[in-house]
Structure formats: C-alpha cells, structure tokens
Design goal:
The chain is mainly beta. About 10% of the residues lie in helices and about 45% in strands.
C-alpha cells in the first residue's frame, strides 16, 4: 500500500476526501484557480477534523461529512449557516427563519441534541461565544475564505474539550492565497421580496521568496425581510381552521369583560381576537460587514510565526405584532375619567369576590388618590396598543478575535504549535414600540382627560374605554409618554492558550511501514459573560409584551486541560489485513466551576482488503454548565400551551380537578370561567442554577466505507450512531409537568400529583397568564434529564467519466431510529418522549425519520457544470394526533405533514479564464410549505401556520453570482 499517495492528493487540492474517512464531495470545479492549487500545495499544516494528529497516512475512526467548494458554489450562501443547515442529521437552530424567539444569531444543532452541545471551529480553533449561553454565531464565519466544511458528529470532547458532545463543525479556510478575487451575488424571491446581496473582495500575496504570505478579505451582506402577511399560508393565525389570533385586541377587556360596541354602555362578555400573524417576519433582515486578515512568516526553517484577526459587525432586525396589555394586573383607579359609571360597576362586579356597590360608587366619586374613598384594585386588562405600531427589535453585534502563534518542526517526525487567541463579542438588543407598564399605570391614574395625578416625565392620560372624540385611538401624547425604548447588552469573551506536539514514533511502526502517530498538549481557556440592562429591560413585567425580563448579571469560569491522542497501525499489507489500526484519546479537564473531569475515546478500523474499511469508535464526552446555565437570573417568561386543563367548563363538576386548580392559586369563584391561554402561551418561570454539575454523553459509531477498485469513482459509506446524554442540563417540557399533574385526559387523575406544585396560577382570574406574580410552570434547570438518539448515516458518491466531461451523483442521508427525552428518568411516573417523526411543543425542531439530499452534477469539459439538488424530508405527525376534526381543537389535516421534496437547479460556467458565473433557481417547483395551526408548538419554530425552519416558505427564488480572479 502506497501511503504517500494520499498525502500527495490532499496537498495538491484534489477532492477533499480526508484520508479515506470522509465521503467524497461533489466533483471539483473544472478549472480551480491557480491560487487555490498553490495554497494547497504550500499548506504548512494539514487540518483533519476530529484529531490533532496531522500525519496524512494515519486514518482516524470517526466519520466526517465534508461540504466542498463545489457545494458551496452551488448554494451561493450568504452566511455559513446556509452551507450546512440543510444537511441530513443537522436540525434547525436559530436562523433567518426564526423571528419570535430569535436573539439575532445563527446557531448549529447537530443530531437535534441542542445548540449548546456542539462546537463551531475555525481551522480547528475555537471562536468566541456570541451569547451568554456559549453559542457561537455562524454569521461571523468569513464565508468567502472557506475552502471546505467538515462536520463530525458523535462526540469530540477528548479532542476539543467540553461542548463537543454531539460533535463539531470545522470551517477550514483557504491558505496562502495569492492574487485578487472579487465576487458579487444577488438573489430575489419570485414574489419580488427578500432580496439578498453579498459582495466580497479578497487580496493575497506571497513575499520574501515565498517565506511569507498575507491575506485580507472584506465582505458585505444584506438580506431584506419577508413578512408573513405577504404569503397566503400565514396571513392569519389559525386555530381549528379559523383565523383566531390573540385575545388581546381592541377594544379593551377588563377582567374578561369587553367594552360594549360604541363604548357608551357597560361591559359585555364578548371576546374579539387580534390577527397578529401578518406583522411577523418569515425572513429576518440582516446587514453585516466582516473583515478577516491573516499572515505567516517562516523565520528560519522549522520556525514559522503566524497571526490572524477577524471583525464582524451585524444587525439583525426582528418584528412582532403591536404590543399591548397582555392580561397583566394593572392598578386601575375606579375614578378614571374615561370610564363611565356602568363600566365601573361592571368592573367591581367582575372580581371573584365582588366589590360592594356602595364601595364602588364611593370610589367612583373620589376626587384623587388622597381621598379616603379612592380605590385602585388590580384589574386584568387586555388591550392591543395598535397606536404604537409593530414591536421592533434591533440586535447589533460587534465581534472581534485575534490569534498569534508559532509552529514548526523539531525533527522530521515531530512538530509543534503554540498559539494564543482572544476574542470579544458584544450584542446590543434595542426595543422600540413596546411600551412601559409603569408609565401605563401612571397614565391610568388621571384626574381629568388631560391631566395625570403624577405629571412627571410628561405624563398624559391613557384612554382605554373608547369614549370621546378620540374613539378607540389612544391620544398620540399618551403614546409618546409610555412608548419608551429599552434594551440590554450581552458581552462575552474568550481567552485561550494552546500548546501541542504531534508527530510519529520513528519512521515506521512496530509491525508496519506506517509509524505510530501521536499528539499531546495542554490548553487553558477563560470565559466571561455579562448582561447590562437598562432599568426597564431588567425589571419583571416592565416592558410590555416581552415575556421575561433581562436582568443585569455576570459570571465566568476557567479551565486548564491536558490531552493526548494516539493512532497505532497494527497490521498492514498482509492477507486479511490490508490495514488494522487502533485509536485512543484522553483529555483531563480541571474546571473552576465543575472540578476535574475526564473524557476519552477508543476505536479502530480494519480494512480486510483494499477498498473496504470497517470502522468504529466509542467516546465518553463531558460538558460543563455554561455561564448562562449557571448564573442567569430566575425570571418569568412564556412557554407554549394551547389548552389549560383548568380553563372553561373542564373542571366544573370534577371535584378532583377543581381542587388541583384551586390549590395552584385559582380563586374558587373562577372555576368554570378561567380563560384559555392568551395566544397559546402561558407563563413559565426559569433561570440559571449554580448547583448544576457536568453532563456526560456516551457515543458509539460503527460503520463501513467502501471504495471498490472494480468500480472506479464509487464511494459508499454507512455508519450507525448511538448517543446517550445522562445528567443532561435541561428544563422539563410543559407536558412533563402538565400530564403527571392533570392526567393524560386532563381530568385531574395524574400519576404524579407532586408535579402540581410546579404550577402557579393568576390570583385574580385563575389563568396561567399575567404578570410576574403568576409563576405559571416552574421549569428550573437541573441535571435530571436524559437524551438518547440513534440511527444510521449513509452516503453514496459516484462519478461516471464521459467523453465530454463527467456525471456525478452524491447521495447523503440519515435514518433516525430514536430521539427521546426524559426530564427525570429516576421518577417512575415520568414519560420518555419519543420525537422522531413527530412535531409539537415537546418535539421541536422537527426530526423526520428519513431525510436525504441527492445532488446530480453534469460537468461539460472545463466550461459548464449543471447541478440539481433534491432535498427530501419524510412525513411527520402531530404528537397528539387524534385523526379527527376538532377533537383536540385542531383540524385533522393540520395534524400530519406528507413527505416534502425540494429541487434546486444550478448552472456554473467559466466565462473566461478569470471569470465564472453561477446561476441558481431554488425551490424550482415552487412547493408550498405544509399548513398547520399556529397554536401547535412554540412560536420559535411554529410560525405562520407552518414550520419555516424545516419547510420552504419563501417560494421559488433566483440567485446569481459572478466571480473575478487574477
């Protein structure tokens, strides 16, 4: 076996098949630039994701999925998330399709194990986290310089440290670029919206006879918004087939009673709804600038110094329907000048314990708050503040990171690399058109239609009754008073120092020509994170319509680690053992917040004859809690729930259920009239937990890679994976509390009544909505969770040579056998939730049982590539599907989605030696997204009556990219 041939192939920039462990990418573009070829041939170090051993003749056991240059060209990605987000085995994270619940970042979610259980690497090194939860924003990756992306799943903590439980995505950059490359891309949806522009300019030069190289790349990207109101599927928030929306609307409701038509009478038990859907984004707008520079210089043979730096400025805007008074209790003076006498009496009578008529009348006639008869009871008020316009949020991120290091060879078989990196990320969240609760309460306390009792800060009274010349419109002077901006800034930093040796023990192995490879090293990391909020953003219930507040806090931790890896060739080039290799690795980590922990891996590969390799690896990975999980303050926010077991007539006549509802804080008099959740959302109380410990994951991967010599150009791989996370840092799903408390039929006959203590109700109307005094569901973080997933990844890549070029097929798919979650396996009453092929608030984002991508590419000489991508997603079903119309409140047709196929067609052409053009039509057949109810699942993933992170909601769209090279 000629081992050096693989090294030569990798160094000369052929298809990025990393040492036989990764499946082939689509065929290389017919005419790669001379600069890229030179970059590969002069590459000072070989980057292999999943190991720090750089010997190209040694093959590791972990499967790697590669996205090569061709795939990146055909996708014409605006950001890095678009390069890998649609790969099978990768579930949606937050991205441009997430509006309500987004923080302005794009995240990775490998195996649907969560966005916090993987790492994003740049040339094998860590990037500064972009959030207090240690998520790296994919928006900061300099896409123009990416040569390939390598994704390894199944645990890589022994190689890269904590957070790599489900794997890593490594963005490998081009090296030693020389010349100039300018590219511009323009895209637009067929409906005429959602324009996107990307421009990049890259300059590079070698100097001092090739001993040094410097690169500078500048990029700009802009993506326009797409409103849900511009697509037929999402123009109304649907429930049971009808446009339902939110119960907070115009006119105002007081304690569930609505202002009568015309506003001249009393209050009526009417329930208007507000269609919030059209205001939301299907595609969030983005504007981003990025700068990346790198340089290296060979001081003497065997000593090279290098440095690089990056800066990103991005703005992501979000938009929601107008803010409002969403069922919070407000101190409402009964002498409010905008209320009439009948309305005041109706309010007094609406309480669980009514205010006596005489007391109510006296309070109505009170002169001011100093009058002994003055009364301002807490009243549940619902009123959509349409006068403010849509709620706007701007997320502005500034991120930088610097690297500096020295590397080289100590001997022909031993290399070293010592580097340090420091980065900071600052994300400022600014909200406008939300409104402040304290100012609304100040404006309610009015002595006349134009005068507040407390006139400070320019207070102007608010008219919620619809009386007077203003009708239902709140006076602009009042809007200007309570419509004040608010916001907070999240800051994170990473300091990392790494020193490693890698090489071989001699020039040959014990019984093989290939030597034993090893890598050892030490690493230090220091993380900090903080949030600085203004007074309004940090106060519970102060900013209207926000859910949870964002209080000021800070935290940090550091870790020092030692690591070692070894790959041992045992046998090679003998009958039955073309190669036999063992692999092992260990990392010992000492955390300032979690003590000492050990992660390790053991595996091997066996190639009985050339072209057929069996591989397997077992890994134990550990993840320490991040700063947000440890130190984020406990606050009350929102979680999805369409139906409350205590609402309406459900508890009437059921003594057991009634007793549970009352014990949770519902006044006895409200039984039978407790309102359903507002906009299918209820309160939830959660936050950090300083007592969290590490979580541990075990992963097993077994596979086969076949490259039969009898069929040149064919590569087949199949890998079984099994990952189990125990002691998982998780919060319970709503169903993990509601079902054990109320029972599967919501009749009060739960199997674990103790869970009922984790539910707190509104003390006024018994609902699960209201201000911070209504805890809702208590969803505290703990180490009690268990997550398990297993399945099979498969890939088939075949290139057929033709007289005029070649034809390539690349099939990449995943079969997911199981994805389960249990909030507390030690509790025999707890339910283990299976989420494969299901969708609901418990099972998001969606994990289909089967998913695959098939790309077919016809290359015509050195002139044209025509490529068709078929992306197929298996059908899925609502977790609680009853197959009936309205049985559970939803139409039967909205409780299951058929399988979905999307086709993307791309044509790439070398117009001249220095200029190429790529044109693509995405969603070629203009397939619509499947429709469901907006009240199934969370607003993060279920938005606009569908799941826009899984299904295409934009429709057919076009994009063209021109690239000039010198």
């Amino acid at each position: 076996m000629t081992k050096t041939s693989k090294f030569t192939q990798l160094k000369t920039g052929a298809a990025p098949v990393v040492l036989g462990i990764a499946m082939m990418s689509t065929p290389a573009f017919a005419q790669d630039s001379d600069e890229l070829a030179a970059a590969s041939s002069n590459q000072p170090a070989i980057i292999v994701t999943g190991t720090r051993i750089s010997n190209p003749n040694l093959e590791q056991s972990s499967p790697i999925q590669v996205v090569g240059q061709d795939e990146m060209d055909f996708r014409q990605a605006t950001n890095a998330e678009e390069l890998i987000g649609e790969l099978p085995g990768i579930a949606p994270g937050t991205n441009s399709s997430v509006n309500n619940g987004s923080n302005g970042t794009a995240s990775l979610n490998l195996r649907n194990l969560g966005t916090g259980r993987n790492l994003i690497l740049l040339d094998g090194t860590r990037l500064v986290p972009s959030t207090i939860g240690s998520r790296t924003d994919l928006n900061i990756i300099p896409v123009a310089l990416v040569e390939r992306v390598e994704v390894i799943t199944g645990g890589a903590s022994s190689v890269y440290g904590a957070d790599a439980i489900s794997g890593v995505a490594n963005f490998v950059l081009r090296r030693d670029f020389e010349g100039l490359e300018a590219a511009m891309s323009y895209g637009i949806n067929e409906r005429g919206d959602g324009e996107r522009i990307r421009t990049d300019l890259t300059l590079g030069a070698n100097f001092d006879d090739g001993r040094g190289n410097a690169i500078l790349s500048i990029g700009y990207q802009e993506v326009d918004d797409v409103l849900q109101g511009s697509r037929l599927i999402s123009q109304g928030a649907k429930f049971g087939g009808n446009v339902f929306g939110s119960g907070t609307t115009v006119p105002t409701r007081f304690n569930g009673l609505q202002i009568a038509p015309g506003g001249a009478g009393g209050l009526v038990p009417q329930y208007n709804t507000f269609n919030y859907a059209p205001f939301n984004y299907f595609q969030t707008p983005l504007e981003r600038w990025n700068i990346f520079g790198s340089a290296r210089y060979e001081v003497t043979p065997g000593i090279e110094v290098y440095t690089r730096g990056m800066f990103t400025n991005s703005t992501v805007n979000l938009q929601l329907a107008p803010s409002g008074l969403f069922g919070d209790p407000f101190a409402l003076p009964l002498n409010n000048p905008f209320l009439n006498d009948q309305q005041v009496q109706d309010i007094c009578a609406s309480f669980a314990v009514p205010i006596p008529v005489a007391t109510c009348t006296a309070a109505r006639n009170a002169a001011d708050p100093t009058d002994p008869n003055f009364l301002a009871p807490d009243v549940i008020i619902n009123r959509r503040l349409v006068e403010q316009g849509p709620r706007q949020t701007a997320n502005v991120t500034n991120q930088f990171q610097l690297w500096a290091g020295v590397r080289g060879d100590l001997s022909p078989t031993l290399s070293y690399d010592v580097y340090a990196t420091y980065g900071e990320s600052q994300r400022t969240n600014t909200r406008t058109n939300w409104g402040l609760k304290s100012r609304v309460e100040q404006a309610l306390n009015a002595t006349s239609p134009t005068t507040c009792f407390d006139a400070s800060n320019g207070c102007f009274p608010i008219n919620l009754s619809g009386l007077g010349a203003a009708g239902t419109n709140i006076d602009p002077r009042s809007v200007a008073f309570f419509n004040q901006p608010s916001g907070f800034t999240d800051s994170t930093s990473l300091l990392q120092v790494n020193a490693s040796l890698n090489g071989t023990f001699g020039e040959t192995g014990l019984f093989t020509e290939t030597p034993i490879g090893f890598a050892v090293g030490v690493e230090y990391r220091d993380y900090t994170a903080s949030r600085v909020a203004d007074v309004s953003a940090g106060t519970q219930d102060e900013v209207l319509g926000t859910g949870a507040p964002a209080p000021t806090f800070n935290g940090g931790y550091d870790v020092i680690e030692g690591f070692a890896e070894v790959i041992v060739p045992i046998l090679e080039d003998i009958p039955g053992f073309y190669s036999l290799t063992a692999e092992g690795g260990i990392r010992v980590s000492d955390y300032s917040n979690a003590g000492t922990n050990v992660t390790w891996k053991a595996g091997g590969s066996w190639e009985p004859f050339e072209g057929f390799r069996f591989r397997g690896i077992y890994q134990v990975a550990v993840r320490a809690p991040n700063i947000g999980e440890l130190f984020a303050p406990v606050t009350t926010g929102l979680t999805p729930l369409p139906i409350d077991p205590c609402a309406g007539a459900n508890p009437v006549g059921n003594a057991t259920l009634t007793a549970i509802c009352v014990a949770q804080g519902a006044p006895a008099a409200t039984i039978g009239v407790i309102p359903q959740p507002s906009a299918a959302q209820i309160n939830a109380t959660a936050g950090g937990n300083v007592n969290l410990d590490v979580e541990e994951a075990t992963s097993l991967t077994l596979g086969l890679v076949a490259t039969p010599r009898q069929i040149p150009g064919l590569t087949v791989s199949i890998d079984y994976f099994d990952i189990e996370v125990t002691g998982a840092i998780t919060t319970p799903n709503p169903g993990d509390i509601l079902t054990p408390c109320y029972g599967a039929n919501s009749d009060g006959n739960g199997t674990d009544p103790a869970q009922c203590a984790n539910i707190g109700r509104n003390p006024i109307n018994g609902s699960l909505n209201g201000g911070g005094e209504t805890l809702g569901l208590i969803l505290q973080l703990s180490n009690l969770g268990e997550i398990v997933t297993s399945g099979i990844d498969f890939r088939v890549n075949y290139t057929l040579p033709l007289s005029f070029g070649s034809l390539n097929w690349d099939l990449n798919g995943t079969w997911t056998d199981t994805l389960t979650f249990n909030a507390n396996p030690a509790n025999p009453n707890n339910v283990t939730r299976e989420c494969v092929g299901l969708f609901s608030g418990n099972c998001e984002p969606i994990t289909p049982e089967w998913a695959f991508n098939l790309r077919t590419t016809l290359s015509i000489d050195d002139l044209v590539d025509v490529s068709l991508l078929w992306r197929w997603i298996d059908g899925v079903t609502y977790e609680f599907n009853d197959g009936m119309d309205g049985g559970n409140g939803f139409l039967a047709e909205s409780q299951a989605f058929d399988d979905a196929s999307y086709f993307d067609l791309s044509v790439r052409s070398n117009v001249s030696e220095n200029f190429d053009v790529t044109f693509s039509v995405f969603n070629l057949l203009d397939r619509d997204a499947p429709e469901t109810s907006s009240f199934i699942g969370s607003s993060v993933f279920n938005s606009g009556n569908t799941y826009p992170t899984t299904y295409d909601v934009l429709g057919r769209r076009y994009q063209v990219t021109g690239r000039l090279r010198f």
